[in-house]
């Protein structure tokens, strides 16, 4: 599975979303494994995962205890496990 995920930080946020990526199950390849998004901005992350479905991609900001995640069932279709 290959897909592009858009991460966003709300314009009302008062802090950057400084994230690190991982997957569950582990093994996904991200074109960037970390980044920082200013309030009101967004970034795209390209992911390649040769994993069984479902797979969850996590983007965590441990400093601000925040997370964005996407559960994929197959072919980059968001869904639930």
Automatic annotation (TrEMBL):
Superkingdom assignment: Bacteria
Region Disordered: start-end pairs: 16-37
InterPro entries cross-referenced by the UniProt entry: Ig-like_fold (IPR013783)
Name of protein: Ig-like domain-containing protein
């Amino acid at each position: 599975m290959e897909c592009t995920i858009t991460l966003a930080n709300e314009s009302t946020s008062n802090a950057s979303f400084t994230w690190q990526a991982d997957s569950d199950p582990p093994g996904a390849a991200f074109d960037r494994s970390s980044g920082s998004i200013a309030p009101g901005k967004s970034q795209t992350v390209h992911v390649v995962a040769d994993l069984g479905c479902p797979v969850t991609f996590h983007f965590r900001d441990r400093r601000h205890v925040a997370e964005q995640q996407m559960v994929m069932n197959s072919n980059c279709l968001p869904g639930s496990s």
